[in-house]
Write a structure and sequence with these properties.
single chain, 6-stranded antiparallel sheet, alpha+beta, 190 residues, Alpha-D-Glucose-1,6-Bisphosphate, Chain A, domain 4
Length: 190
């Protein structure tokens, strides 16, 4: 007598909604899963799936990547926060300070000691657009980007890549959320 496999929950969520993916590709996620499963995508690499979505299904390069990542997440081939080279933690915050003030506060070496996590060192800064940093051991890639968000407002985003696990990425997201709040307080006090 054959046993039936229990249905499992998707390993993660899709990167965009059904409505957004359908508007750009003509299919919702359930349709993409059926189409890609029918084409043997469960046994393909990320690159091969993206080429399949682009070549066979005629989806542009950027949206082919979105479909591929969503498919991998929904079928358990990729976890939330997982990238090709490990896991990533990100965060963003809109601050009640202009772009120049936010950037100046973030880039100031003395103030960095008050908002950056211990051991994080900025090694490159491009005013007022971005900063690059590493952890003390130099093994982690950290990027900060700054955006004007209207009069008297700016946004900072952070992404830390090459983390070893999903748990490490989830913990680091919390660290970055606190760090960005600390930076916002510093910028508001200036």
């Amino acid at each position: 007598m054959a046993t039936r496999k229990r249905a499992t929950q998707p390993a993660a969520s899709a990167p965009v909604s059904d409505a957004a993916i359908a508007a750009r590709t003509g299919r919702i996620w359930a349709e993409w899963i059926v189409a890609l499963d029918g084409a043997g995508a469960r046994d393909l690499s990320h690159t091969a799936i993206a080429e399949l979505v682009h070549g066979r299904f005629g989806v542009g390069d950027w949206w082919a990547q979105s479909v591929t990542v969503g498919y991998e997440r929904l079928t358990g081939k990729r976890a939330n926060l997982q990238k090709a080279d490990g896991f990533a933690a990100s965060g963003s915050l809109t601050v009640a300070a202009g772009l120049e003030r936010l950037y100046a506060t973030a880039a100031d070496e003395k103030r960095q000691q008050r908002w950056l996590p211990p051991g994080v060192v900025v090694h490159k800064a491009t005013r007022p657009k971005s900063m690059r940093a590493t952890s003390k051991d130099g093994s982690r890639s950290i990027s900060f980007y700054f955006y004007a968000k209207g009069r008297g407002k700016a946004q900072i985003t952070v992404q830390q890549e090459k983390l070893a696990s999903q748990n490490a990425a989830l913990k680091q997201k919390k660290v970055w959320a606190k760090s960005l709040r600390d930076l916002a307080e510093l910028a508001a006090a200036d």
